[in-house]
Amino acid sequence: MTDIGKYLIVIGGVVLLAGIIFYFFGNNLKWIGHLPGDIRIERENFNFYFPLTTLILLNLLIFLISKIVQWLK
């Protein structure tokens, strides 16, 4: 049961860190979601946006972080 508490603390720390980054550096992060490969379709009464490249980069970043954490154990 203590493992769940540890995971919740880590998740809370990650969310806090993300909030601090977006709060202080939000103006410099406008490129997120506007990368080449992100799909954007804008019509008169319809907007569709799918950040494909951004999701791939975030997935790669999360994978690398998890591998580093696993390696450090």
UniProtKB/TrEMBL annotation:
It holds the Pfam family DUF2905. Keywords: Membrane, Transmembrane, Transmembrane helix. The chain crosses the membrane at residues 7-26, 46-65. InterPro entries: DUF2905. This is DUF2905 family protein. It comes from Mucilaginibacter yixingensis. The lineage of its organism: Bacteria, Pseudomonadati, Bacteroidota, Sphingobacteriia, Sphingobacteriales.
